[in-house]
# Entry
Amino acid sequence: MSEKHAVECLRCGTFRTVERERTQGLDPGECAKCGYLGWALVADLSEPVRKNLRERPPELHFRRLRVV
Ligand SMILES: [Zn+2]
# Structure
């Protein structure tokens, strides 16, 4: 069984869907648009959270994303 997850680039806001097996980690790779490696599940992002993330330095985005 695989699941699809909608993710959003934390830098430019591009959406994409990533498919993964239940046993695999989520690894969307680089953003096709800006090359950024930071993604968040769209389902986890509400507007205030997005705003918050964009106002923080990129290193913090990255650290947060490793957890996802
Ligand atoms: Zn991007």
Remarks:
- The mean pLDDT is 80.
- Strands lie at 2-9, 15-21, 39-41.
- Residues 2-67 form one domain.
- The pocket of zinc ion is lined by residues 9, 11-12, 14, 31, 33-34, 36 (CB under 6 Å).
